[in-house]
Amino acid sequence: MGDAAISLLVGLFLSTMSCPADALPSTCRPEYQKLSGGLVHTACKPPNNNCIFVSTGLNMAEKADVLKAHNDFRSRVAQGQLSGFPAATNMYRMKWDDNLAQVAQAFTNLCDDRHDKEVQRKTSKFPKVGQNIAWNYEPTQTEVIDSAGRVKDWFEEYQDFNSGNVDPFRVSHGRVVTHFTQVAWAETRYIGCGYTHYKLRNDDNPRFPYKKLFACNYAPGGNMIGKSMYKIGAACSACPTGTVCDKATALCYTPGESDGLDSSGGSTGSQWGIIAFFLLGIIAMAAVCIGIIYVRSVTLRSSYPTQQPCTS
């Protein structure tokens, strides 16, 4: 089954499921339901009813492209090949994380190009998660995503970043550079991204009705003022404990670890596994809806007195 069919299934799942408002999305894990301060986790937010999906999700090849683009750019920094920047001693090789990707996808499916809060994108494994987002508006519908190109746009911000602010990390007032610094943050090891192509029912920009929203979530998150963007020194000379240096890229990795993607270039599991996941999600949502409706109907019936048959 092709990627287009999978995207259609995902879109149907996300846009057509409807039930009482207090039924939570299938992505809303129990640990996501415990945020303080009245905040709602991104994976627990209800659908945006103003959003009409054209397509959702990255296919297998696109996920691999995003991961490769990040590691290629990180390698340039680590090897000291970036003009004006010193080499890095401790740059991790990134790997894909499905849970980060699931939350990133939940974010883009909300059709809102404003960052969520750090705590709203946490996962079971990662309490501190960074985020980069990109979007564009188009007059006509096209299916070109160019996710690797988005990563390149983020990385190109290095031209506006003062390399003297690498260690300790600081940000000067001026042009945006924090997409680049997150891409090149040495201790960030995991990444997961989402993508949604959509229209809005009530759009204040009718000349450009088609929107594409791309987001990557990172763990551990970077851009921490006063910390180290990366350690300066001989390339790959101080890899974290338990990792070794890939001399070809100057990136640090754990021997024998996978990149989080299977041999077909996607996240672990076949396309049929993805389909099964969403079908199970639909079944679970249906069960929740039926349960809520049943409880409400029982409650409603119990609020009325039992009618007795008329006798003469």
UniProtKB/TrEMBL annotation:
This is Putative antigen 5/scp domain protein. One of its GO terms (cellular component) is extracellular region. Residues 1-23 form the signal peptide. InterPro entries: Allrgn_V5/Tpx1_CS, CAP_dom, CAP_sf, CRISP-related, V5_allergen-like. CDD domains: CAP_euk. Coiled coil: none annotated. Keywords: Membrane, Signal, Transmembrane, Transmembrane helix. It comes from the Eukaryota. Pfam families: CAP. The chain crosses the membrane at residues 272-295. The keyword Membrane applies.
